[in-house]
Amino acid sequence: MADVKKIATRESYGNALKELAPKYPNLVVLDADLAAATKTGIFKKAYPDRFFDCGIAEANMMGVAAGLAAAGMTVFASSFAMFAAGRAFEVVRNSIGYPGLPVKIGATHAGISVGEDGATHQCCEDIALMRTIPGMTVIVPSDDVEAKAAVAAAIEHDGPVYLRFGRLAVPVFNDPATYHFEIGKGITLRDGKDVTIVATGLMVNEAIVAAEQLAAEGIDARVINIHTIKPLDEELIVKAAAETGKIVTVEEHSIIGGLGSAVADVCAEKCPCLVKKIGVNDEFGQSGPAVDLLKLYGLSSENIVKTVKEVVGK
Amino acid sequence: MERAEKLNLQKIATRIRLGIIEGTFHAKSGHPGGSLSIADTLAYLYWKEMNIDPANPKMEGRDRLVLSKGHSAPALYAALAERGYFPVEELATLRHIGSRLQGHPNMNDTPGVEMSTGSLGQGISAACGMALAAKLKKEDSRVYTILGDGEIEEGQVWEAAMFAAHYKLDNLVAVIDNNNLQIDGPITEVMSSYPITDKFVAFGWNVIAIDAHDFDQIEAAFKAAREVKGKPTAIIQKSIKGKGVSFMENQVSWHGTAPNAEQYEQAKAELNAALAALD
Q1: Is a pLDDT exceeding 80 seen at residue A247?
Q2: Do the domains spanning A6-171 and A187-308 agree at the CATH topology level?
């Protein structure tokens, strides 16, 4: 993995918007004074007449997005996850979610890998918030290939979609030649019988690395990439629960209400088994280099290996 | 405005008021006060101003109304029913389980409802989006939104006001229904949104102040708004909460209270008498 290419999924998002623009003449993009950071600036530079800055006013931006969508436009609205899902939550819920308008929310800078900006900007609650809205699709891409495929799929999806992207450049591990994205369909990246590691976003790559090390130590771990938190691929989760008996979830999000909770909900009802959640515990983040923060908060292959060993009792 | 036309609009507005009473009585809840204050405005919009087709509610290039003060849904429903979007008899199902006439407007259920609203301060943002879409699609359609004078205490309203002026949405008209009362009391006591005119002027809007119950002034305002280029228009309409029902007028207690059987009969008698007087 030494020479693997690294790209932040926010970069993938901006590139995908620009690449898809010719195919969708009604596509417009909104941002709230963060275009340079969310990378919608890539689209803005190429299509300035289809980009609308809403200023530092996320609530209005989400409402404007709803109105544009109601009038037949294809709309992406972007800000940091903290403001798109957090500050504007109730507008997303009532003006986009309730009428089921097909607004695509491109939320970047999710999780603690925001880094130096610190806790005020490190949103670890957005998956939990968004997945409680009826009809909302929640997608957390793991790398560049998946992020671009997710943007394309979101446009075609007739309903609201929340797309969660990161600031940190992450390894591109999916092969664009063979990769297939389908909303709501998890991807088994590695088969295994002792335990299943269910990961999302930038933690998928860490899960793969962990599984390789576990294999060297005699533990056969299955790895599932859940890019769509909602609707969750329940069939794949239940199958893994039945076949491996133990599940470890990994996400760069609070352990309350995110991927781990979604998986635990399904297992509790359909195939009770041990579900151990790795994520940001019930605490706020802090300033620091993203890579160091991820390690500090246990979002690393090392901690996945350690946790899996505890779970399988080895 | 010619006398015959004015009489006709006054009759329509009175029938809308009857519809509001009908709906809220059968719902045993709802918001008659702020509904009654916008009946004349809705009559003018749906019968004179807007390019719409009740037989084809989704007509391409139509004008749109977003009721930002969504709690005045009884007025919107009464206007839409009277205009032919759905049967007037359906007004009695307001707020009942299974009814498409939800307590606050739902764009997916009800023909003619352009946006789901009710959480205050949000409709004006959606209206901005619709006005922008019309410009992008090079349509000459117009977008109207009605807000309460209490509603504009919401910060999002001013985010939207900034947006509309910045993008020169001259196809957008925001009506501010200034009946001076919100749930907890007079807006001057609860949280004054005054001076409303100065605020919209400062935000870069064209502002027109009118009497909400004078069709000559209503017509003049909407006509003037069409002539203004490069700016959205705010029509600040001084209205009477509960207008048309004597015991409801200017009474804050009628913001969100339904009439009982006796009050229902009295309100209907007053409005039917008003209707007869217009003949």
Answers
A1: yes
A2: yes
From the candidates A33, A64, A133, which should be mutated to test the interface with B, based on the most B CB atoms within 10 A? A64
Give the number of A-B residue pairs with CB atoms closer than 8 Å.
106
Question: In the predicted model, what is the mean pLDDT of residues A185-194?
Answer: 98
Query: Looking at the complex, does the CB of residue B118 fall below 8 Å from at least one CB of chain A?
Result: yes
Q: Which string of b and e fits A15-25 if b means at least 16 CB within 10 Å?
A: bbbbebbeeee
Element (H, E) at A16: helix A9-20
Cβ distance of A64 and B129 shorter than 8 Å: yes
Q: Taking all residues of chain A, what is their mean pLDDT, rounded to a whole number?
A: 97
Q: Which amino acid is at A119?
A: A
Kindly state the DSSP code that residue B253 receives in the 8-state scheme.
Answer: G
Find the CATH number of the domain harbouring B25. 3.40.50.970
pLDDT at position A2: 53
CA dist., res. A132 & res. B45, Å (int) = 38
Closest approach of B254 to chain A, Cα-based (Å)? 26
pLDDT digits (tens, 9 = 90+) for B163-180: 999 999 999 999 999 999
Q: How far is B101 from chain A (nearest CA, A)?
A: 14
A58 is catalytic: yes
Q: Looking up tokens 């390789």, which residue turns up?
A: A212
For residue B172, the chain A residues in CB contact (below 8 A) are none
Q: Which two tokens stand for residue B153?
A: 């205490």
Q: Class assignment of domain A6-171?
A: alpha beta
Residues on chain A touching B134 (C-beta within 8 angstroms): 71
What total of structural domains would you count in chain B?
Answer: 1
Residue type at B225 in one-letter notation: A
Structure tokens at B10: 């006054």
Q: Which residues span the domain enclosing B123?
A: 3-278
Query: To the nearest 5 percent, what fractions of chain B are helix, strand and coil?
Result: 50, 10, 40
Spatial separation of the C-alpha atoms in residues B74 and B259, rounded to whole Å: 13
Q: Which two structure tokens, joined as six digits, stand for A36?
A: 């340079």
Confidence check: pLDDT of A275 > 80? yes
Which of chain B's residues have a Cβ under 8 Å away from the Cβ of A95? 115-116, 119, 122, 125-126
What architecture (CATH level 2) is domain A187-308? 3-Layer(aba) Sandwich (3.40)
pLDDT tens for each residue of A141-163:
999 999 999 999 999 999 999 99
pTM, to two decimals: 0.97
Segments making up each domain of chain A, as ranges = 6-171, 187-308
Q: Which of B120, B144, B141, B126 is nearest to B232 (CA)?
A: B144
Cβ-Cβ contacts under 8 Å, A55 against chain B = 159, 162-163, 166
User: What digits encode the pLDDT tens for the residues B121-151?
Assistant: 999 999 999 999 999 999 999 999 999 999 9
If one compares A314 and B248, the residue with the highest pLDDT of the two is: B248
